[in-house]
From TrEMBL:
GO terms for cellular component: plasma membrane. This is Putative aldouronate transport system permease protein. Pfam families: BPD_transp_1 (PF00528). The chain crosses the membrane at residues 21-42, 79-103, 115-136, 148-166, 262-283. It is a multi-pass membrane protein. PROSITE patterns: ABC_TM1.
């Protein structure tokens, strides 16, 4: 009688308990900082002052920090900037990546090998910060929202993954459409893309998270603080501890009416976390089917 490999055997009770305990500890390590940040942002001034810092035990509830953030100050503007850059940037990046990946997945496309070689070369060599800045400056994009989108409009990794997925589609499918007189663009939009919803959703998530979390391009190319994205505002006021101005007035003007500065800082962190935490569960189911299949079989 043949015996099954050890990894195919049912785990023993101690093994299952150890696995459950390990996963519980990892989940606690991940969730506990988020819990502290959210609790501090929702705590009243007396609780934050009594704790002398981050709040661990809840004692009261207050939305004062969020009311101040959304009352028309620099944070409100930065949220709108980040939402606009993320939406437009994700759309631009998806369109460019899909078109480039589909063209490079067709063996007979024009300049197929040289273009693919140039794209793969970017995995090894990057242009550098100074040449990138000089290029953006020569294009007149300094202090423009496009400077936050165009320099990273196409990710070579995402393009290669999507190209691998397109190459995995049976050649008979587009060939039958060509026989019926369909153009390449029609084949892409009516046949290939509907079959690639998984990889498109995952790549779109990668781009959206990248644009939402990006702040370094804003440091380089944006001099007007009215155009700062949320992540740069968070870096300036949370990490570096600069005083946050709300509604165009300094903190000292109405210190008694404002919530603690720490609560406001933690509220900014929560605002930066919410979109990713909200979107990820809806796209997570596509990860295995979308990216992994395309990457392995490509």
């Amino acid at each position: 009688m043949s015996t099954r490999p050890a990894w195919e055997e049912r785990p023993s009770l101690p093994g299952r308990l150890t696995k459950g305990l390990t996963l519980s500890v990892i989940a606690l390590i991940v969730l506990f900082p988020i819990y502290i940040v959210m609790l501090t942002s929702l705590s009243p001034a007396a609780t934050v002052n009594e704790a002398g810092g981050l709040v661990v035990v809840p004692d009261g509830f207050s939305l004062a920090a969020y009311r101040e953030l959304f009352s028309g100050g620099v944070v409100t503007r930065s949220v709108l900037v980040s939402l606009g850059v993320t939406a437009v940037g994700t759309a631009v990046s998806l369109v460019c990546t899909v078109l480039a990946a589909y063209g490079l997945s067709r063996p007979g496309s024009v300049f197929h090998r040289p273009l693919l070689f140039m794209i793969l070369l970017t995995f090894l060599f990057t242009p550098g910060m100074i040449p990138s800045y000089l290029l953006v400056k020569s294009l007149g994009l300094i202090d423009s929202y496009w400077s936050l989108i165009l320099p990273g409009a196409i990710s070579a990794f995402n393009l290669v993954v999507m190209r691998a997925f397109f190459m995995n589609i049976p050649e008979e499918v587009p060939d039958s459409a060509r026989i019926d007189g369909a153009s390449e663009f029609r084949i892409l939009t009516r046949i290939v893309l509907p079959m690639s919803k998984g990889v498109t959703a995952v790549v779109g998530l990668f781009y959206a998270v990248g644009y939402w979390n990006a702040f370094f391009n804003a440091i380089l190319y944006i001099n007007d603080n009215a155009k700062w994205p949320l992540q740069l505002v968070m870096r300036q006021y949370v990490q570096q501890g600069q005083a946050l101005t709300l509604n165009g007035a300094s903190d000292t003007a109405s210190a008694g009416a404002l919530p603690p500065n720490l609560a406001i800082q933690m509220a900014i962190v929560v605002l930066a976390l919410i979109p990713v935490l909200f979107i990820y569960p809806f796209v997570q189911k596509h990860f295995t089917k979308g990216v992994i299949i395309g990457a392995v079989k490509g």
